[in-house]
Task: inverse folding
């Protein structure tokens, strides 16, 4: 029986790489630019203690903003109708690993906030 489903048709890595390279790739850089713009504006107007929390939130939101923007740029990361691509899977696993690692930074950071704020206050005086 012939495989007529294009989603499961075996393709070489070279074909998949060419297909991956032909995409626009705008969603994640756009998401990063928006997140870092928010961090820049928050850093200008918020005190040091709050701007760090905005930084953590913005870094954690880049993936979700990228998924949101991908619908408008035509990439649509969550499209189930698109043929499977090894490079898409590798990209999303790498980003997912970064998202899973970032919460481990919070406990060590929370312990150092008072010391950082004291050093900041003493350097201003």
Result:
């Amino acid at each position: 029986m012939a495989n007529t489903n294009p989603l499961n048709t075996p393709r070489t890595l070279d074909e998949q790489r060419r297909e991956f390279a032909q995409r626009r790739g705008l969603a994640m850089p756009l998401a990063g630019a928006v997140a870092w713009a928010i961090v820049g504006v928050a850093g200008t107007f918020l005190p040091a203690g709050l701007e760090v929390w905005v930084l953590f939130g913005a870094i954690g939101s880049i993936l979700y903003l990228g998924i949101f923007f991908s619908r408008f740029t035509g990439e649509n990361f969550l499209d189930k109708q698109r043929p499977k691509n090894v490079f898409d899977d590798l990209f999303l696993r790498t980003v997912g690993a970064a998202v899973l690692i970032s919460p481990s930074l919070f406990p060590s950071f929370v312990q150092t906030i008072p010391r950082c704020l004291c050093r900041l206050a003493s350097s201003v005086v």
In short: The radius of gyration is 20 Å. The helical segments are 13-21, 27-45, 48-73, 86-101, 105-124. The mean pLDDT is 76.
